[in-house]
Amino acid sequence: MLDLLYPAILICAGLIMIAIFTSLLAFRFGAPILLVFLAVGLLAGEDGLGLHFDDATTAYVVGNLALAVILFDSGFQMRLASLRQAAGPALALATVGVLVTAGLIALATHVVLPFSWPESLLLGAILSSTDAAALFFLMRVGGTPIRERVRSTLEIESGANDPMAIFLTITLVELIRFGSAHGGISIPGLVLSFVREMGLGVVFGLIGGFLITKMVNRFNFEHGLYPVLVLAASLVIFAAAGEVEGSGFLAVYVAGLYAGNRPLKAKATLQRFQEGMTWLAQIIMFLMLGLLANPARFAMIALPSVLIALVLIFIARPLAVWVCLWPFRFQSSERTFISWVGLRGAVSILLAILPLAEGIDHSQTYFNVAFIVVLTSLLVHGWTITPLATRLGLVIPPKTGLVERVELELPGSAHHELVVYRIVGNSPVALGERVPRWARPSLVIRKGQSMRYQYAGRLQEGDYVYLFAAPRYTRLLDRLFGSPARLAADDDDFFGAFVIDPTKPVAGLAQAYGAQVPTADPELTISRFMADRLGGRAEVGDRVGCGPVDLVVRDTDDEGRVISAGLALEPQAVVGPTMQTVRALLRVAVRIRQFFGGKAKGSRAAQ
């Protein structure tokens, strides 16, 4: 056994390094990076280089641990403001959406495979949830700035629907294993079991998050021990909740959500450590699942698996999304995008390992079908998310270009942080704009030489500037140190052709543009109206439909209040030549009105 120690370490560490280096190709050619990790595992496996790995139980255990790490970090990164804005639709998708999706996949499975109804429902449950790991990486690592409400809805759904899918899968596995020996499934008993499991998950998550916060803030450990403590505590929460038959995945997600939204010592260090651990967990999970698969067995099941994947992508997911989001105020373009972004990933393959570990009939078929569906989803969705978001007008055009910034945490300071900017060409400060005094610049490094800011003179491209600033001001500093953004050609289409004053009464929109707005309160401002319709907090790019027009958030303050708004005519329509001409004429009319309005104001001022 000891003779295998060094070869095993060499192989495992080598595969991780190969996966990391192949990620460069993924970024270079726009390939889904998780598909690359999975491909490395497949190529190294039994049907590739010949590495033999068939321990389903070990794969299931390691995969669960990796998923717990990923879910804790995803909760840790989620802001409460985003949660409040998107919790309703996301939870609807994570519960009702999972049931609808599982039922439709079961129907398709019963048609194309010789499965009984319980077996078809089991495959539906296995494939019913979107994958948190896959979605977080494709949405965040891709760097595409999508509207906050849409992105938050997808991220919260993917983190919250795993417990539902796991609960359904375990229940159906037990039903198939024991049949009617335990009296079958009682619907009231099933509902009570689900409520107990989810409730215990929430309780353990809140208690665990509270304890993590207290431990980090109260005790003075060696600086490098804080991330290790938090990682170990998150796994303790996961295991403790599971031990009492609660949802460990929900518990660890809630714990991360609680801790991430509380003041924490060494928070920047924790975030960097967790980012690295999440990458490692993701790589290990996909490599291991790739090693476990045998592509040679895929041929006989490939056609029905692809058919099931197509039903999932084009029928089950869209129908579930449109049913769940019907009560909420989403634009048709937003519903279309959420319908499309139904990524399947490691969770579905992990759930398909459970029948293998339990040794039930057709267990290998469950695994192979799930694997092919995941491959199809990554291939179809992974390359199309950004183009579709752009096509639907959901990508926020940048208002600030390249910003090179590093934040350094200051011990004992909760109100300021040390921020380091590298001066980029054509930024306002490089062109002579002065740094405001409230930013407290302290040091400039130029060509390897350090000097006090007062003696550095005009800042030059390539300089590093160290300054102290309150965290709420970093957005303003980004605009000062960032290169000017090259706004998209359809910027007016995104932010609206007209700029309107958000402090004006919303009732005026009905008279001027025929907008459908409430007129009960004549003093209700446009800003307050938009914030109320957006869940209390607005984000740049958010839209509020008002019949024939859309109100668009152009800019917000740190509290999420609208400080600049636009108005778009015929929102979200696919415009043809006629509509383009109408819009062009409207823009000309607006420019003329603004020009003469400005001249009139100037004449009155002169008088």
Give the topology, please.
Layout: H1 5-29, H2 33-44, H3 56-77, H4 80-112, H5 117-126, H6 132-141, H7 148-178, H8 187-218, H9 225-243, H10 248-260, H11 267-292, H12 302-325, H13 332-340, H14 346-358, H15 363-382, H16 385-391, E1 404-408, E2 417-422, E3 441-446, E4 449-452, E5 464-469, H17 474-481, H18 491-495, E6 498-500, H19 507-513, H20 526-533, E7 543-546, E8 549-556, E9 562-569, H21 577-606
Antiparallel strand pairs: 1-2, 2-5, 3-4, 3-5, 6-9, 7-8, 8-9
Helix pairs in contact: 1-2, 1-11, 2-11, 3-9, 3-10, 3-11, 3-14, 4-5, 4-7, 4-12, 5-7, 6-7, 7-10, 7-14, 8-9, 8-10, 9-10, 9-11, 12-13, 12-15, 14-15
Short summary of the structure?
This protein is an alpha+beta fold and 607 residues long. The protein contains 21 helices and 9 strands.
Q: What does the model show?
A:
Keywords: Antiport, Cell membrane, Ion transport, Membrane, Transmembrane, Transmembrane helix, Transport. One of its GO terms (biological process) is proton transmembrane transport. InterPro entries: Cation/H_exchanger_TM (IPR006153), Na+/solute_symporter_sf (IPR038770). It is a multi-pass membrane protein. One of its GO terms (molecular function) is antiporter activity. This protein is an alpha+beta fold. The protein has 3 domains: about 1-390, Up-down Bundle (Na+/H+ antiporter like fold), CATH 1.20.1530; about 405-480, Regulator of K+ conductance, C-terminal domain (Alpha-Beta Plaits, 2-Layer Sandwich), CATH 3.30.70.1450; about 490-575, Uridine Diphospho-n-acetylenolpyruvylglucosamine Reductase, domain 3 (2-Layer Sandwich). About 60% of the residues lie in helices and about 10% in strands. It has helices spanning about 5-30, 35-45, 55-75, 80-110, 115-125, 130-140, 150-180, 185-220, 225-245, 250-260, 265-290, 300-325, 330-340, 345-360, 365-380, 385-390, 475-480, 490-495, 505-515, 525-535, 575-605, and strands at about 405-410, 415-420, 440-445, 450, 465-470, 500, 545, 550-555, 560-570. The strands form 2 sheets. Strands 1-2-5-3-4 form a 5-stranded antiparallel beta sheet, with helices on one face. It has a 4-stranded antiparallel beta sheet with strand order 6-9-8-7.
